[in-house]
Task: structure prediction
Amino acid sequence: MRQLEDYGEEIEQLLVNPEATKPSDAAEHFEAVRRKAREALGEALLAQYGNADFEKPIGALLETLYPDAVSHTAGPSEKGRDFVIEDVDSMGLSRTVIVQVKSWSGAVDVGGLAHGLSQLARGIDAQGGGVDLAVLLTMAKALPHDADKTIAEAEAATGVPTRVLLMDETLDLMLKQLAKIQL
Result:
């Protein structure tokens, strides 16, 4: 059996060879499989769950990510938050996250983004301001070109960090948790 130092020359060649840092064909092929699985999942979710029904698989995803910490507040009393997550981490630190779900597809226009962010602002108010993070979760593929500015203005107005999850991020989360999700 050869010792590690016997491979010194080969290791040095790998370290200086830019080709060695590129993914193998197998990795490229698997990324294509992952992309197709994500696309199929997105198409199936949009076909199967329309509008408010889209909250069902998202609620199941959130419950998988945060067991026993998710409240579904959607409906007439939602006040800008479909879900409230009141989570305590392993250090005993608590946080409150509100999630507004939108089954948007394609690109979100400025008005749609502003509407979703204003709903989150109402949700923050409804929580009495005790919100650590506000999330607008959507199946949209793209935001308006000035979305960062719009989101920053919403954060400044509410004082709460705000994230907008688009389709790819949402589907990646779902794919990672798919075996655990229970509807």
In short: Residues 6 and 121 are 63 Å apart (CA to CA). The first strand starts at residue 70 and ends at 72. The chain has a mean pLDDT of 87.
